[in-house]
Amino acid sequence: MKKISKALLVLLLLAVSVVGHSLYVQGSSSGRTGATQLNGEGCVCHGAPSSAVSVTISGADTVLVGSTNTYVVTITGGPLVRGGTNIAASAGTLDVVTGSGLRKSGNELTHSAPKAPVNNAVSFEFTFTAPSAAGSAILYANGNSVNFNGNNGGDQWNFAPNKTVVIATTSSATTRNRPEGFELAQNFPNPFNPSTTIRFTLPQDDVARLKVFDASGREVQTLVNGRTSRGTHFVQFNAANLASGVYLYRLETRAFSETKKMLLVK
């Protein structure tokens, strides 16, 4: 009897161990929250943060009170067979974008399943709705770069640099983000294939940069880079060598910056 009892006990312990491991892996694969620099220590189950992993948050630096804006967390480096994230904000509301691979828990976001990389990067698109009062908010994120071997061995992670977003009223946003005379127009046509025209206006001679990025935040083309005369400019963007999808174009000068989306459909 004692031998049978011991055997049963061993089997029970093994079963509990396997189930516990299965639940742990399953829980990790569906993401976790409370692991950003807002309220946690990161992905400590995968060891210490690693400089081999780069995590960035891209999106507007200044937004209007109550407005909803799109941001992207991008993970590169490390093993990156799959990637995961946890995103949090000090104020405002975060939400998922359909098809982004994120789920919402409380007011934080995390991956719904480990996401495969595209062009050596894993990206998660999300929205941030600004508070109804002027001020600032901080966006936090971490990124997990895993080898997807069923355990934590060899996985790496890192924090993204915290992103401060200025929350402005209409008048102050005009002063900060759209000084009088500056304009970045929506590209035309949009959607486009394979070329489109981007129009922008400068109220005075300025150093201007007009760049195009893919949805992961990777720069794909520089259209303008240098001293540019005042007035309205029309710039042609040809995407014949690019895949279909959402692209971002951003105009920056010493006093102005704005980003818009465009859609390439082939």
Low-confidence stretches: 7-27, 171-178
| Overall form | globular
In round numbers, the mean pLDDT is: 82
**Gyration radius, to the nearest Å?**
23 Å
Structural class: mainly beta
Structurally, the number of domains stands at 2
Strand content: over 45%
Counting DSSP H or I runs of 4 or more residues, the number of helices is: 2
Relative helix content? 10-25%
Order of helices and strands, N to C? HEEEEEEEEEEEHEEEEEEE
The CATH superfamily name of the largest domain is Cytochrome f large domain
Assign the CATH class of the largest domain: Mainly Beta
CATH architecture of the largest domain: Sandwich
Quantity of strands, as a count: 18
Question: What do these coordinates show?
Answer:
The protein has 2 domains: 31-172, Immunoglobulin-like, CATH 2.60.40; 178-264, Macroglobulin (MG2) domain (Immunoglobulin-like), CATH 2.60.40.1930. Helix content is 14%, strand content 46%. It has helices at 2-29, 170-177; strands at 53-58, 62-64, 68-77, 82-89, 93-96, 102-105, 108-111, 122-129, 135-146, 156-159, 163-168, 183-184, 195-202, 206-214, 219-228, 231-238, 245-252, 257-264. The strands form 4 sheets. Strands 2, 4, 6, 7, 9, 10 and 11 form a 7-stranded mixed beta sheet that branches. The protein has a 4-stranded antiparallel beta sheet with strand order 1-3-8-5, with no helix packed on it. Strand 17 and strand 18 form a beta hairpin.
